[in-house]
């Protein structure tokens, strides 16, 4: 696994050691930092846009070499490969053009409506259905790849700029962006609305990235010397880490286990996603600011992530259904609350003490030899439904299929019907009265035969259904136990929450009550005595007043 970093040159590093494999300088001289880099689908090509000059495509498959310079597009400002193919590339220009360039034909294939200002970022959505272009004016333009039309425009709330832009590889309708005003926003391009935005940075946002394994997890870096994590579904910032230097670029490893960031001083930091408090490794990549970081793509990673993204339902499933205080493991716990002890990590594979205590360990999963039964969707992706199962006792129809083919029956089915497509039909006796002297007797025998046949086949079918249910209950026990564990954990958490609230309420009530239980009784007696004294004084005053009136 390797990673590309771009400053005034592009360097290719071994990961995680940071050893430099190649160093490439576009053009004939260094005019400034490289504007953008983008890997092809298979990771063999890298498209880059230098600070000035034409966009270039270099090959890193066997050895580093320039294979193509994109002619005919003046003043390019950014470029991005398609996700599903390496033939086409989107190019944005300083004049506000967004073009699709065909590498094989070496010409411009599509032209989208011009933007109002220079294009600074361009990205394809996960399935290449749309192209998103960010401009210096602070607007993001959404183009339909099929119709070449403008589908919508977006702006970051409380911002006039767009400094970073990324699309989601799992949820194809999500786009994240950051601004110089420190705001991070996520757009839902299907509904043309803001899904989430927050002003967590006190300086310009330099880079943003979606997690490749958790569709609702976003990380951002800024010039305020911190990087932040966000939960889109929870609509909140779930953690912020302060660092020594301002981070200028960020990227997730394809498996989501590592986060790589680069600083203004050219140093690259590697963080373990299970413990993001301190980097596990660091190395110097450039002498100046690292503008871009991007992990190299491979066919294996692409295939695995496309499969996993199809299995994620985009409407309130998987991650959304499991959202709680530890949905993202360590990410969901604020840094200030972690303390010095490393928190427990969320893992669907590991067996914790709680699972062992309730008897849901991996020793009882009942694994056996099984095959996968799958189908292909309209998009050509393979989905797995269940384990393929062959009944131990096939039905009577299947047992007698080939045996009945050798016999001659009077059936209502023509001889030309394909027996492979239609199951054999039970024999039917000719009921012609002329050919059957005892018509009533034959009819009774036929009815009895049909009843016996139906009963037997229903019995066999019920046995097969029982066998299927036993098979699925045995081979899917791991998933069932995991669901039961999640439900039990949720119930325990809710019980603890309710109990804590009850204890707090009881403590508040106890604080308001007097310490001495007889204090209320004593206080009541004292009040009665005071009332009696006041009544006596009032009667004396009244008598004195009456006497004065009589004397006068």
From TrEMBL:
GO terms for cellular component: centriole; centrosome; ciliary basal body; cytoplasm; spindle pole. GO terms for biological process: microtubule nucleation; mitotic cell cycle. One of its GO terms (molecular function) is gamma-tubulin binding. It comes from the Eukaryota. Pfam families: WD40. This is Uncharacterized protein. The lineage of its organism: Eukaryota, Metazoa, Ecdysozoa, Arthropoda, Hexapoda.
């Amino acid at each position: 696994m390797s990673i590309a970093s771009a400053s005034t040159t592009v360097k290719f590093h071994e990961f995680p050691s940071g050893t430099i494999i190649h160093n490439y300088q576009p053009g004939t001289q260094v005019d400034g930092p490289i504007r953008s880099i983008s890997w092809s689908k298979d990771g063999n090509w890298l498209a880059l846009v230098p600070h000035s000059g034409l966009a270039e495509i270099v090959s890193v498959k066997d050895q580093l070499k320039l294979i193509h310079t994109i002619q005919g597009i003046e003043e390019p400002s950014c470029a991005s490969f398609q996700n599903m193919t390496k033939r086409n590339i989107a190019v944005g220009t300083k004049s506000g053009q967004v073009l699709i360039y065909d590498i094989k034909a070496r010409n411009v294939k599509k032209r989208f409506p011009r933007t109002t200002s220079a294009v600074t970022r361009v990205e394809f959505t996960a399935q290449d259905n749309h192209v998103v272009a960010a401009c210096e004016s602070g607007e993001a333009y959404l183009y339909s790849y099929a119709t070449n039309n403008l589908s919508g425009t977006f702006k970051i709330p409380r911002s006039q700029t767009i400094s970073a832009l990324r699309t989601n590889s799992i949820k194809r309708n999500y786009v994240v962006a950051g601004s110089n005003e420190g705001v991070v926003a996520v757009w839902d391009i299907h509904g043309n609305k803001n899904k989430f935005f927050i002003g967590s940075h006190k300086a310009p946002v330099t880079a943003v990235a979606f997690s490749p394994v958790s569709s609702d997890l976003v990380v951002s870096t800024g010039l305020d010397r911190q990087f932040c994590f966000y939960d889109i579904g929870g609509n909140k910032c779930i953690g912020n880490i302060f660092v020594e230097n301002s981070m200028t670029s960020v990227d997730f490893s394809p498996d989501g286990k590592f986060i790589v960031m680069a600083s203004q001083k050219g140093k690259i930091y590697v963080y373990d996603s299970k413990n993001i408090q301190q980097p596990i490794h660091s190395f110097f990549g450039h002498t100046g600011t690292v503008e871009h970081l991007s992990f190299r793509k491979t066919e294996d990673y692409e295939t695995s992530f496309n499969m996993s993204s199809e299995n994620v339902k985009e409407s309130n499933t998987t991650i959304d259904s499991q959202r709680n205080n530890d949905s993202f493991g360590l990410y969901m716990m604020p840094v200030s609350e972690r303390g010095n002890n490393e928190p427990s990590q969320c893992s669907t594979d590991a067996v914790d003490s709680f699972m062992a205590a309730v008897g849901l360990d991996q020793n009882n999963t009942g694994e056996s030899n099984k095959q996968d039964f799958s189908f292909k969707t309209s998009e050509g992706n393979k989905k797995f439904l269940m384990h393929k199962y062959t009944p131990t006792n096939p039905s009577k129809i299947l047992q007698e299929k080939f045996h009945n083919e050798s016999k001659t029956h009077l059936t209502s089915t023509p001889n030309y019907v394909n027996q492979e497509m239609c199951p054999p039909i039970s024999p039917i006796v000719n009921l012609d009265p002329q050919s059957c002297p005892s018509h009533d007797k034959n009819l009774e025998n036929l009815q009895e035969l049909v009843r016996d046949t139906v009963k037997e086949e229903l019995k066999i079918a019920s046995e097969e259904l029982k066998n299927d249910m036993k098979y699925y209950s045995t081979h899917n026990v791991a998933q069932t136990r995991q669901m039961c564990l999640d439900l039990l954990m949720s119930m325990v958490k809710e019980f603890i929450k309710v109990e804590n609230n009850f204890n707090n309420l009881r403590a508040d009530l106890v604080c308001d009550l007097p310490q001495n239980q007889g204090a209320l009784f004593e206080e009541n007696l004292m009040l009665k005595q005071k009332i009696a004294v006041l009544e006596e004084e009032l009667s004396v005053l009244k008598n004195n007043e009456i006497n004065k009136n009589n004397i006068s």
